[in-house]
Amino acid sequence: MIDGNHSMIIFFLNDFSIETTMDEQVEMEKPEQLSSSSRKKELLSICLPQKRYYRQRAHSNPIADHFFDDYPIIPDDVDWSSFYPIYSNENKNSEFNNPQVEFLDIGCGYGGLLIELSPLFPRSLMLGIEIRQKVSDYVVERIRALRIQNPGQFNNINCIRSNAMKYLPNFFRKSQLSKIFFLFPDPHFKKQKHKWRIISQQLLSEYAYFLRIDGYAYFATDVKELFDWMFKHFMEHPLFIEIKDDDPIIEKFSLTEEGKKVKRNGGQIWYAKFKRIADPCTEND
């Protein structure tokens, strides 16, 4: 029979033994835990972002005075090498000197088109412009993760948050772009909001300024009324003509997030391609 004093001594010894064993176990597992922790951090760093953490309204008023920081005053202020790691400081003397964005995806959404086109045109820099903060954050994180998962790939694409209806002159020079995309833009159904649409005669003149001669503008939508609107404005503009050809880029429209959703819902995608032509009055050869 064990009295109270002996019981306390045994409890103390058992407790000491347990603590000692645990301390030894922790010491033994520290390197493994550290490596495991490093592995977890590495895995987290390359994990693709999940859309549910970047929820945002589908529409944004482009006329509103959104707060945009860090936009350049003039295009010369833009350091494109900071957007594209292939043009980092150590590569300044490479064949890829003086980088300039050539493809522009206006209203890029979740970045599907950029990701599809990146391997097709590895030597062309592409930029997506998205007005919604959380969506643009998602695209940036998605591209960052893809670069880590696929070393040497997706270095020619990036995304910024900005308003293409206001700030394109701050980023791009005359005739800098070779391709502009308008995929599944906000239809702004109400008549009083048609002025918010991304395609208008005034905006087309601005896009033509940045698009080089023989460059191309593409648009696609699942809203027939909006397609007719955009097609009409392009057809009426003197610096654009319709082009019908077997362009492999058009096949990628259905692989974007919006394109997949349209297909899932049994919808139809209307699209068109227009070529930038010279102004006979001011751009003669």
Task: Write structural notes for this entry.
- By secondary structure, the protein is α/β, with parallel strands linked by helices.
- 38% of the residues lie in helices and 16% in strands.
- It has 8 helices and 7 strands; from the N terminus they run αβαβαβαβαβαβααβ.
- α2 (112-117) links the parallel β1 (101-106) and β2 (125-130).
- The longest helix has 43 residues, at 4-46.
- The chain starts with a helix and ends in a 9-residue tail after the last strand.
- It holds the Pfam family Methyltransf_4.
- One of its GO terms (molecular function) is tRNA binding.
- Pathway: tRNA modification; N(7)-methylguanine-tRNA biosynthesis.
- One of its GO terms (cellular component) is nucleus.
Describe how the helices and strands are arranged:
Blueprint (H helix, E strand, L loop, with lengths): L3 H43 L54 E6 L5 H6 L7 E6 L2 H17 L7 E5 L2 H8 L5 E7 L17 H10 E11 L2 H13 L3 E3 L5 H4 L5 H8 L5 E7 L9
Parallel strand pairs: 1-2, 1-4, 2-3, 4-5
Antiparallel strand pairs: 5-7, 6-7
Helix-residue proportion: 25-40%
Structural class: alpha/beta
- Rounded mean pLDDT is 81
- What is the CATH top level name of the domain at 78-276? Alpha Beta
The largest β sheet comes out as: 7 strands, mixed
| Overall spatial form | globular
Tell me the fraction of residues in β-strands, as a range: 15-25%
- What is the fourth-level CATH superfamily of the domain at 78-276? Vaccinia Virus protein VP39
CATH architecture of the domain at 78-276: 3-Layer(aba) Sandwich
What is the CATH topology of the domain at 78-276?
Rossmann fold
- C-alpha-based Rg, rounded: 27 Å
Number of helices: 8
Largest sheet, spatial ordering of strands: 3-2-1-4-5-7-6
EC number: 2.1.1.33
Main location: nucleus
InterPro entries: SAM-dependent_MTases_sf, Trm8_euk, tRNA_(Gua-N-7)_MeTrfase_Trmb
Active site: 186
